[in-house]
Design goal:
heterodimer, A: four-stranded antiparallel beta sheet, globular, B: mainly beta, six-stranded mixed beta sheet, five-stranded antiparallel beta sheet
Chain lengths: 114, 111
Amino acid sequence: ETGVTQTPRHLVMGMTNKKSLKCEQHLGHNAMYWYKQSAKKPLELMFVYSLEERVENNSVPSRFSPECPNSSHLFLHLHTLQPEDSALYLCASSQQTAANYGYTFGSGTRLTVV
Amino acid sequence: SQQGEEDPQALSIQEGENATMNCSYKTSINNLQWYRQNSGRGLVHLILIRSNEREKHSGRLRVTLDTSKKSSSLLITASRAADTASYFCATDNQAGTALIFGKGTTLSVSS
C-alpha cells in the first residue's frame, strides 16, 4: 500500500446516477489532487487542494464536484456523467503544493459510464 | 496544458539490456520528476532532480537534466521483466501548484 487509499477500485454508473469517489491519506500531507487518465492521453489535472482549500480548478465540467472536508480526505462527487468521462481517476497527495515534493498516488478508481 | 513529452512512446528490450527514455519540456522548471506506472495502477515516484543538478542516481536508475536543452533522460540499467511499465516525466505547472505529466514511455522487458 502507498499510504493513499482510493475507493471504490471499480465503478460502473449510468449517466443519470450520482456517485462519489473517495481518497484517504494518512501521510500527514497538506496537498491533495485529482487527476483523470484516459487511454492514449496524458494525465489531466482536475483539482488541487492545499490545507482543505481548493487552489486550482482546471476547467473541469460542473458534473464533477470535489470536496475536501479535512487534510486527510478528498472526494469527487459525480452526477450526470457522459460516456467520455470513463477513465481511471487518480488521487495523489504531497507535503505541499510546490512541485519540490514527490507525489504519492492511490491505485485509482476505474470508472465506466454506461 | 502538457509540459513534458517523453520519447520514445514505446520501447521493447531484452532482460539485462539498458533502457533510455527522454523527456523534453517547454518552459523553465524548478525541478523535474520521473514516475512509473504499472498497468492500471497508480503512479510511483522514482526520482526528483532539481534544476541546479545535472545527474542523479537511485539504484539502477540514472537521471540527467540539461536545462539548456530543456531535456531530461532516464536510464534503467540491467533491466528486468519487473521494469515493464509506463514511465512519465513531470514538471510544475505555470502556477506552481501541481505537476503536469507527459504521455509517457511504455517499456516492455522480455525474458
